[in-house]
From TrEMBL:
It holds the Pfam family NAD_binding_10. It comes from the Bacteria. It comes from Chlorobium ferrooxidans DSM 13031. GO terms for molecular function: aldehyde dehydrogenase (NAD+) activity. This is NAD-dependent epimerase/dehydratase:6-phosphogluconate dehydrogenase, NAD-binding.
Amino acid sequence: MQKETITILGCGWLGLPLAKALIKEGYAVKGSTRREENLEQLRDAGIEPYLVEVDREVNGEEIADFLQSDILVINIPPERRDDIIEYHIAQFSSLIDALGQSQVRSVLFVSSTSVYASLNREVTEEDAGTPESLAGEALLLVEEMLMQERGFQTTVVRFGGLVGYDRSPEKYLGGMKEISNPDQPMNLIHQDDCVKIISEIIRLQQWGEVFNACSPVHPSRKEYYSKAAAVSGITLPPVGASDEPAPFKLVNSDKLVNALQYTFMHPDLPV
């Protein structure tokens, strides 16, 4: 039996390895990039490549064909700009209009744990509502827009801090003057787990859900960077004072673990 066609909007740091993994599993995959020079890279990976820009209007000569898929994975994080809330809503209003003309019936939206405030406790999917950043506000509003649509079912995955490969702590240690907020726990997830989790949601058809996706181990900033420094041989920057505990949140992913029967590939970071 032929598997579904999957379109990935945004084949960058996460979208490209996801596309490769899905192709290995037998899916036909379409993928987008904003840069013409990246089209050949997508083609070489076995992805049907498209040049797509999601501005206040969805731009692309072949957008209708791009969205002729069974499943759409949306992986376009909010841009850093002062009007990000207005702009991100406009982007997704345009995208939703385009989806209304397509055959897509299942959408997976890559979101972030930035939708949670630092409540100084464990947070679950129900605790979103008071983001501390404009990007978090924009993501939460877009989540709601997608979940309210009736023409397709949306599953939202809120990933913790993305790490792995070229996003390793060693890359940042050299430029750090000190380890600030050393006792603050971290919410992280490895790229390998991100790819596997999305693949499992698609395989198990877990649509209409909101999931946290974050490693179950929450090292303090001091523990995390100390381990990274020891592994890499880089000198650990001075550890900042911790007289006043920094606000924190511990992202709980039990709902996802139970729904997917998922075991994290990299529960203890860094690796």
